[in-house]
Amino acid sequence: MRRARCTVIFLTRETNPIMRSVKLTAAFLPWLFVSFLASPHAAWPSERSAEPEAPLNERIFRVPVQASPPISLEVTVYMPAHSPRGGPFPLALINHGASHDPANAPRVGDQFIPWYFLSRGYAIAIPMMRGYAHSYGYTAPHGCDVLAIGADAAQDIRKVLDYVKDLPGIDASQIVMVGKSMGGWNTLVFGATNPPDVRGLLNFAGGVKESDCSRPDESLISAAGELGARTRLPSIWFYGENDQTFSNATWRGMYGRYTAAGGHAQLVDYGAFQKDAHAMTASGAGLPLWMAKADAFLASIGMPSREVGPEYLPRPAPKASGYATIDDVDAIPYLSARERASVHAGYLAAPAPKAMAIGSTNGTWASGGFDPARSAMQRCWSTSRYCRLYAVDNTVVWPRQASAPPRTDFAPLRDVAAVPYLRTDGRRAYAQYLAASRPRAFTIAPDGAWGAASGVDPINDALAQCATGHAGCRIYSVDGDVVWAGK
């Protein structure tokens, strides 16, 4: 059963005259997307594919951060469904990045950061900055003074943390601060206040670029040195080589100045990620690049780091089956040649994470979202039968038929003349078999009889066809393999 969502009534922006925001050009948090291909049916609703099915126990709070004029921030809180201790839960407060459209920014972005912490048994708090979503106020401009930008946010973060850590179910002795992009920078600035109730800092591609600053990279590098000189909390920094917002020279310079000044930080360079490393935490494909490092960091500061809620993360991909390579379009089962070409071309062009599911009458794929394998299977079952995963990312996971003998080197698959026993009609039937859709099987008998079948249970169907009035029927080929042993 899906969880019930809470309903919160907010004043509109028209009722709050101080609700505006300066333009920040740090990369906005990208929406997770889900793409599908199948016959002409509506796409699977994105809200069903962007979140785990596990309970989020979501609550939305409005936290006061300023008395006059009154300003409050919208804060989303998730509680894990369970833990070995049953609660109270450690807390990860996650600071979001900047957006070109603050008023319409999603309340939860870069979702795989909160999903990761929920899987480790943490409660999650995500405050929206002033002017973002349904938070009131605005972010004050400070030009190139990136420390002042972070200091403004740090004051609000402190008030949100004081509010959230007193909620029932929160272990106020186990808190980490996390941030992505501008939120990563705000996390580092907050950390420089050396809060006694925070154990460590996790910075994902942190930084900020304000539109009225002509030298943002130089400002970040210089300011990072000042933060390092003041900060005593340990931190871990995650950056990628093809970050389209902060160049390698910038984040390496920031880290160098920070640590040279005395800051205790570990740098994780996770290399290039798809088209933009800045979007790594918005994709399930990025999880293998950072989860183990985050686990080790949390353990090093005495925080929980073991997975206790695997349902909050995408299921591990099945192993390669050896059935076919991802480029072999003819290996896709059940579908016609035209359908195979269509689903195959769309799937190859889609970005990871992605998955393809095939049913007896339809093929579909999903890209992005929380768990594309789950989404592809749900979509397949809504339009077809006998659905199974065919591929995950670039790995074919469709299994060989369970009762198929092992492949042999008796002859090449398409060598019609090599097939034993057959007369002219049997060889013509074998040539037609090679053009049939998979799953398929071809059987032969010593008296020249044969059987050919394509569909849900082709091996038994082909054996039954061959055995009608004939003895000694055996399997010669299954799908793309010759399985005849020669004796």
From TrEMBL:
The keyword Hydrolase applies. Pfam families: Peptidase_S15. It comes from the Bacteria. The keyword Hydrolase applies. This is Dienelactone hydrolase. It comes from Trinickia caryophylli. PANTHER family: DIENELACTONE HYDROLASE DOMAIN-CONTAINING PROTEIN-RELATED, POLYKETIDE TRANSFERASE AF380. Keywords: Hydrolase. GO terms for molecular function: carboxylic ester hydrolase activity. Residues 72-224 form the Xaa-Pro dipeptidyl-peptidase-like domain.
